[in-house]
Amino acid sequence: MAIFADMILHDQALLSIADGQNASDEALLLPVLDPVIGSPSTCQPAVADFAHPRQWFIDTTTVLHDPASSATIPSSKALLLRSSLHSEDDATEHFTLLGDQINDGKAAWTVPLASFGQFSFINQYWEWAEDVLGRSSEKLLEARIYGAVYASLFTYDANLIQSFCEHWCPSTNTLHTPVGELSISLWDLGYIGGLPVYGKFYDEVIPLARDLTGVDENNTYLLPPSCRHLFAAYHRLFRASETHHITAHDWIHFWCRLKSKYSNLSPNDQIEGASRPTGHISVPPKRTKDEEGAFNELGIKAHLREEVYLAAFLSCWLSVFVLPNGKVNQIHPTVFKVASMMARGSTFSLAVPVLASVYHGLKQISSSPTPSQCHVILPMHYIYEWLGNYFDTYLPSTHTQQGVRMVRLADEKNAKHFTALTARKLLRSVDPS
């Protein structure tokens, strides 16, 4: 049984997790990260001062044209997005591209090229994903992430990334092409990746112990009980880890006791019984005693097991597929709060933080004199599928899951081959539709 407590050390609030059955156990101390949307136990107000600019738009008027009647409607009210860059008299210095830096000898690609956190095979992740999609489809649909989770059943080939970064402007977050500036949008992430655009504010935090264990005036827990079990599992794995970093492999091995079906072999080298996921989802059978192991070890009550199981998977999915950061394939306890709420059907606006992560990562790469060695981690698969959707850079896939467009471009060796020259030519000549 895990014991949670709040501590303060050197003015830093800490969440302490200790084993209640082992008095000599050294407590795990995690720095508390204040939630932007406020702490449920203190009714703390949300942070009012987000990022600048303080006002994202201005009221203006414009002339609307009716193509059906060729009539105009003068002085119609409109909202104009503000930009601190475009309002400057001389902003040309802001729009220097990586390609320009390479041509001037101030930057260069080197070998090998960093993966930038590209999603790849993780032992037993696909088995776990299939099991969750079969067991918890209703909750995933309620949280509006079934398609986004389904997309993680596949890998996505790297394609055009060097040429893409050479034409990406880190100051405006746009791709410079002959037809103008293009960009990855929230709509793209929703349409291509199945990520919800609308929903609760996504906030990665380490909650206070009183938020984890406290109740409101109706005697209802402030946070789902599954959140406590996720931290208890993390504490257990942390104690057993020599590196004090919990990898996705560690997390999956603890929670998912299914038999392995898939391997890291390429499609051409597959052996019988070691194929890649086909995308077919069926209702799993009743769990065996071995598969109940994690629940028994943590003392999870029967009525909570499906919810905790789903929350544990979503913690892994968020950490390695949706919003990877820091180190590749590492579990981040800051996602436990959101994962536990998603497991109850809450919808979070995932497209917004993913787009911010993509913009931030591309800025780091495109601004570096040695982009190949840039150790930034971002969800590259969404960029690859954006390119495939607009620039036809992939062969069609056999997967046709309705509503998840990126799956149609999935699988290894589906990317069309481009040399550096033909990739640059494509981005400079194609009018994406």
UniProtKB/TrEMBL annotation:
Which Pfam family, just one, is annotated for this protein?
Answer: PMD
Q: Which residues form the Aminotransferase-like plant mobile domain?
A: 145-417
Q: Which InterPro entries match?
A: AminoTfrase-like_pln_mobile
Name the record gives this protein: Aminotransferase-like plant mobile domain-containing protein
Q: Which organism is it from?
A: Rhododendron simsii (Sims's rhododendron)
